[in-house]
Amino acid sequence: MTNDRISIDLASSAARIGRDIETLGGADYTNSAEAISRYAYTKEFQNTTDYFIQELRAIGFEAWEDPVGNLVGRNRPKGEPAFGLGSHHDSNRNGGKWDGTLGVVTALETCRLSTELGLDLPLQLLSFIEEESSGFGQGVLGSRIITQQVTEDDLRESFRAVDDGRSFWEHAEEAGHDPARWRECIEDIAGLAGWIELHIEQGRVLQDGTLAFGIVTAIVGVNWVDLTFHGRADHAGGTPMGYRADAGLAAAEVAIELERLAIAQATPTVGTAGVGEFKPGLNNVIPGEARLGLDIRSVDASVYEAVIAEIVTFAEAAAAARDLTLDVTIQALTTATVMDAGVVGALEAAATESGHEFTVMPSGGGHDTQHVAPHVPSAMVFVPCRDGISHSPAELADPADAAVAVEVMLNAIAAYMDGAA
Description:
The protein is α/β, with parallel strands linked by helices and 421 residues long. It folds into two domains: 294 residues, Zn peptidases (Aminopeptidase, 3-Layer(aba) Sandwich); 114 residues, Alpha-Beta Plaits. Helices cover 36% and strands 22% of the residues. It contains twelve helices and 13 strands. The strands form two sheets. Strands 1, 2, 3, 4, 5, 6, 11, 12 and 13 form a nine-stranded mixed beta sheet that branches. The longest helix has 22 residues. The radius of gyration is 24 Å and the shape is globular.
């Protein structure tokens, strides 16, 4: 390898990325005529896996599926040091061509270019099953299996198919896999010197800033708080305003307060009241019960913990002021994950040399990289997606942006591996 900057034919690479994406948007790769819909153990998902295996083998990589169906491609023997890159090629049930799949396509393109340019970088492509939870209602499942964050009982009994209620285990065996060896999946990340996942942004920062790409420095922690206010369901016409125990008004106050708290934080923080349910749910009855589902995210654990504490305290006061009772359930779904300074630094240096405008930024959504990062030095790269739309047939990215990101990743990986040698 060399310290000279690697240049690629951006137009040619963009065209090839575009062809891959369009091919995988065809009828053989989705079970929906209106959208991209594919998930683990369906024939459309297997067709997509087979496409990547064929393309990897065409450039001399070994390619296989692990005991549960995660895809692995390598140009070095198992266990030898390599740099990992990839994403997921499943989709939600009303998805588009780009979410996840672009990360695997650009990983493939990076492998192709390393081979064609004679760089011979030690690389491993990894594509996780069930990032989107479409098959079994379990998000980032492939990466959780690899990193041993599930139990055998989960796989045998608890995780059930959305379509027919049968277990993950039964479906995996029926698809020709060997879930009894699921613990061996951790070998998928053995020997990885580093990891990069490319993904569409799922926001408008890059588009609105006319930036070519973003380098992710941290992935937010996602926390859900469920608040249920209990009041009294009285007649809307016959009950004077001063005699009410209106659970709905307390819920509304909390939703407004959450907005204020999120905006007030020094660290970028978002708060969403995404679920609101009033009972009995009639125009002419004062709500006797109101459930509010909150989503609170930040890259700083101390910040989201403080916001959670403050919003619960506010909710308790709002309930007391209206003579209500309150039930509180707090779920910490994922913790904030800081990206590795070495991998981020290599990406920043390569991005600066590229001459393209970029930014460093947090990821507001969760990704498989959150589970890889505690085991492997990791980072992510975002490319613009039109109007921030994702999880929709309307999502759209530009292969030209992806090609620029591939060139940056190639340079970053080469420099990082030189430094690790």
